[in-house]
Amino acid sequence: MTNRRHFISQSAAMASALAFPLVGGAQPKSVKVGVLHPVTGALAYSGQQCRLGAEMAIEDINKAGGIKSMGGARIEAMLGDAQSQPQAGSAEVEKMNEAGVAAVLGAYASAICLATTQTAAKYNLPHVVDVGVADQIVERGLKNTFRFGPGYKKSTEVAMANLLVLNKAAGNPAKTVMIIHEESLFGTGTAQLLSRELPGYGFEVKEVVKHANPTRDFNNIVLRMKSINPDIVIPANYYNEYALLVRTMQQQKVQPKAIFSVLGGAASSYKFVKEFPDAANGIIDCNHWFNPKDKRAQELRKRVEAKGQFFSYEVFMTYASMWLLADAIERAKSADRAAITAALASSTFSDHFMPYGPTRFVNGQNEGAQPLMTQVVKNDIKVIIPREYREIDPVFPLKA
Q1: What is the distance, to the nearest Å, from the Cα of residue 356 to the centroid of all Cα atoms in its chain?
Q2: 356 contact partners, CB below 8 Å, separation of at least 6
Q3: I want to staple 159 with a disulfide (CB 3.0 to 4.6 A). Which of 14, 81, 262, 400 is the partner?
């Protein structure tokens, strides 16, 4: 009898302890969001940088009061690793769907995004693409897919138009081009676009060279470059290969009139500039970049550097994309997938530090997204084009 009484009183105490937090107003529930990137494998560095951006954004969103329309609900990340493989990315989306996430953010690389958006579409799961530049991602009519940044068509158009202007202003010293690209969807797609468009701008494409991921030796490719002697070298590859290619060019004393990248994996990277200042000097890149005149970008950069990390495009693209998603959840007033998809489709999100203006999605592509042109000067990266974001005048061609 005593035991029974003791059990009842203990149960009552436990029940009141469990109920207690609800007395002063219910604890806001959380909204689970899948954060999916290649944090292992060949693309691990970029994937980890993306994850850092996502986690910093979630921290800032929650600190600012969470999702206010849902009583201050906090965003809770379900982290996934795409292992630098499209099929692994798809498997992670399956897991995230099972776990009941409200949306997915990721997955950095084009080939992975192509797979993850397709898998998410099966479950009407809203998927915000943070980087993934291949335009096929948003050209398949998937209603669940929203890309915040520009694709490679837009980036190539901007790069080519600006190359033409730079070359003309310098008296047309550059006439021939060599393109070196990695073998996946990103590099191949960018190279195909470039080789198709460049002749129309008056440039002769001497050669297009493809390489594997990863590639540990660029000596043969650079020897070939020496014999072709192009005026401009255009690399389209991820960080490791980009850095190694440019360093090999430096070692073999190959000095074209310009190294001009479109979405170059290392060209506008503070990591590259710090590690290989001489090889990086003078490189021009058309890439994802923040508005250099926005204080918030500079403040975030300081915080990222205080963590011992570099403020790379992966960090700020994923950071801004997470805020875009939070804005949609705020307006959806729920974790309902269909409501979030509708909110994304009608987004006018403008509270960001990207040079985009208000967000406007057409078939899943943010029409306001644009790359900026940067150049490495005196161990720093500065915007050269367009004029409204310009920090320095461009140097073209580079003096050999």
Answers
A1: 14
A2: 148, 366, 368, 369, 370
A3: 262
- Sign for the CA dihedral angle at 195, 198, 202, 208 comes to negative
H-helix or E-strand containing 36?
A: strand 30-37
Domain boundaries, the chain: 30-150+293-369, 153-287+373-389
Beta-carbon contacts of 47 under 8 Å, excluding residues fewer than 6 positions away, are 37, 38, 39, 40, 81, 82, 84, 108, 314
Answer for the pair 222, 215: CB distance below 8 angstroms, yes or no. Answer: no
Phi, psi of 237 (to 5 degrees): -155, 170
d(CA 332, CA 241): 42
> What distance in Å separates the CA atoms of residue 293 and residue 138, rounded to the nearest whole number?
30
- State the DSSP code for 249: H
The pLDDT value given to residue 3: 52
What pLDDT score was predicted for residue 265?
85
Q: Tell whether the torsion through CA atoms of 107, 110, 116 and 120 is positive or negative.
A: positive
The pTM (predicted TM-score) of the whole model is 0.91
